[in-house]
């Protein structure tokens, strides 16, 4: 297990459901930050928060406990083996909206060559610094360094430039995507586009989407980010192009989602079973 990075903004952090549902000072500040921004400027609004570095209420400082536990069971699920059984080639993972990269390092520790992308260049600078510190600590304490390669890149999830700059195929270039607080960070009007993009990036037939469903406790009428979502919404977004392989309530998750978070695991359907891609 990695040592926790103490978040810099513990006072403002969204620790509990109440911190998100009640109009606390931090909640109001966060809500207002995005309130008047047109959808196409929301990326810029995230970047402003990262650039100021003093108000990052979503930043937990650690990898998702639910993903830690899921990957610990990978021997029970053939599709989580981090290499191709026939060729031995390592699989490639993607964490969209990776922030400081906690989940990126976790996936690399499990053997995936892992890419973290964030629209904020500052987030990526911070992520690289955090990962470097963790790698030094691991080496110094004799903990095995990650088997997977780590690549952290600034870019817009919807654009191809960052993928091409890494020499990765846009169509089906990734074997696994982990979504925590990315789908719901974006304006709900973009959800269909996010789902279509994830389907495009994942390897047909084998690609896996692991979604930490959050915040299920939040009515969508209360705004965001994070924007409220329901398990049925995941079904609607992914059910046509993916086959649902797992759906469960994790024993452990970030405190704010305890008791409500769900994990779903979706596998890309064979081409003949797919509905046509929107967008
Ligand atoms: C709620 S944060 C979650 C960060 C990270 N997953 C974590 O758990 O700490 C959402 C992240 O998505 C990033 N983001 C927003 N729009 C993006 C886009 N279009 N492409 C890539 N990243 C984006 C933001 O900069 C922010 O870091």
UniProtKB/TrEMBL annotation:
Coiled-coil spans in chain: none
Matching InterPro entries: SAM-dependent_MTases_sf (IPR029063), TPMT (IPR008854)
Keywords: Methyltransferase, Phosphoprotein, S-adenosyl-L-methionine, Transferase
UniProt keyword Glycoprotein, yes or no: no
SUPFAM superfamilies: S-adenosyl-L-methionine-dependent methyltransferases
Listed CDD domains: AdoMet_MTases (cd02440)
PANTHER family, sorted: CYSTEINE SULFINATE DESULFINASE_CYSTEINE DESULFURASE AND RELATED ENZYMES, PTHR32183
Name this protein carries in UniProt: S-adenosyl-L-methionine-dependent methyltransferase
Source species taxonomy: Eukaryota, Fungi, Dikarya, Ascomycota, Pezizomycotina
């Amino acid at each position: 297990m990695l040592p926790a990075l103490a978040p810099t903004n513990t006072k403002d952090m969204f620790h509990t459901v109440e911190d998100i549902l009640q109009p606390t000072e931090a909640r109001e500040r966060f809500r207002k930050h995005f309130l008047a921004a047109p959808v196409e400027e929301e990326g810029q609004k995230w970047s402003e928060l990262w650039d100021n570095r003093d108000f990052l209420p979503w930043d937990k400082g650690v990898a998702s406990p639910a993903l830690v536990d899921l990957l610990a069971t990978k021997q029970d699920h053939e599709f989580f083996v981090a290499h191709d059984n026939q060729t031995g080639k390592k699989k490639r993972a993607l964490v969209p909206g990776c922030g400081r990269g906690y989940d990126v390092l976790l996936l690399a520790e499990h053997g995936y060559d892992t890419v973290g992308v964030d629209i904020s260049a500052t987030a990526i600078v911070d992520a690289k610094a955090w990962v470097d510190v963790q790698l030094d600590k691991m080496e110094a304490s004799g903990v095995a360094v990650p088997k997977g390669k780590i690549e952290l890149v600034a870019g817009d999830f919807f654009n191809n430039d960052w993928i091409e700059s890494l020499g990765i195929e846009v169509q089906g270039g990734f074997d696994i995507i982990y979504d925590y607080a990315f789908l719901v960070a974006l304006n709900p009007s973009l959800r269909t586009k996010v789902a279509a993009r994830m389907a495009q990036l994942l390897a047909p037939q084998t690609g896996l989407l692991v979604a930490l469903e959050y915040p299920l406790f939040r009515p969508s009428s209360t705004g965001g980010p994070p924007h409220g979502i329901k398990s049925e919404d995941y079904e609607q977004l992914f059910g046509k192009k993916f086959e649902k392989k797992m759906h469960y309530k994790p024993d452990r998750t970030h405190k704010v989602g305890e008791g409500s978070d769900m994990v779903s695991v979706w596998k890309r359907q064979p081409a003949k079973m797919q509905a046509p891609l929107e967008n």
